[in-house]
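Annex B. Sample input.
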Amino acid sequence: MNLSATNELWQPTLRSTINEMLKWRKSITEDGIIDFIASLSPWLASSPSALFVQKAAISHLHVSDPLGWIIAVVIETLGLTTTHTALAFHKWNRAHPDEPEKQAPYGLAVALAVVYVVVTLCLIVVLESFPKFSPYAPIMFPMLAVVGAVNLAMRSHHNQRVREESKAVDSERSRRWEVEDEERKFKHKLTEKKLNAKLGISVNDGVNDVNDVNDASLTVNDTVAKMLEGRQRKTEERRQRVAEFAAQGMTAQQIVDAGVGSINTIKKDMQELRTS
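Annex B, continued. Sample output.
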């Protein structure tokens, strides 16, 4: 953090204060409030189950209060992470339907979520309804530990999967920028060479003659043609996926949620498919 940012953090200026007020004003809308509640509710949804297990563990297992709260935190966070992981894997797999090597283990994530629900229900029901079986209740906690460990490993592998795809996208973008830079550079050299020839100026700029420039220009044109061909192929593949999803009755927004493209791109593709 630079010095100016630090000063603004501890001694807000009038401009920064006004900007923060405007930012909050924009966010305080009906949609903004609903979005905030929607993001908060998943964290609260598993709280009752966690508190029930905490109360039952203190009453029937005679654990200490700190250990009871640790159990409640485990139930709370594990329920959230297992559910989020399963939904994230489902969304990822829908975005990569024809790439089996990139598929996330969605089935295993769902199985972990089911195990979590069963263990939580068993802890609540067994401890509250059948106290005589309470000596066997601690067996459930190693199962929760296994769920947490496997869930952590799956998320780590999935993060690596996401990073690899992001790296591939960045590499493709960098290559495209390099091709565009080379194209601009050769066009500039060709224009400069023709202008110098028209003015009768001889300049040794590393290009021997117009033929060399033309050859270089043809090379760039071939590269650009290949890039355009690849771009056209990707467009055709995307439109084929859009057509398949549309045939299943999916709306444009649902296709966007599947990770096919942006809303404007999907609408344009659907319009092209209707007119073709």
